[in-house]
Amino acid sequence: MFLAYYLRSKSGREMMKSLAQGSTRYNLSKQALLKSPLLLPRMPEQKAIAALLSDMDAELAALEQRLAKTRVLKQGMMQELLTGRTRLL
Q1: pLDDT averaged over consecutive 10-residue blocks of the chain (89 residues)?
Q2: Which residues constitute the domain of residue 4?
Q3: pTM for the whole structure
Q4: Are residues 84 and 52 in the same domain?
Q5: Contact by Cβ (8 Å): 48, 2
């Protein structure tokens, strides 16, 4: 799990790009990948980092859902006000 998060990070993508060959389509050979210096924290730290990042992903998903619901509510309120069905005093 930690490795998946690392490979999606900016530094992970840059490392993969530096190992890749090609100009239009990148090709990453198994040999290049095995020769790359990849420094990983110890397993307990990897698990802690991955758990924290997973919790953050879940929180972001919940916030995105809340934002979507708020936008729908705002749109409905605007329609009510702009059509005159609801008046402000």
Answers
A1: 86 84 77 80 93 96 98 95 84
A2: 1-40
A3: 0.62
A4: yes
A5: no
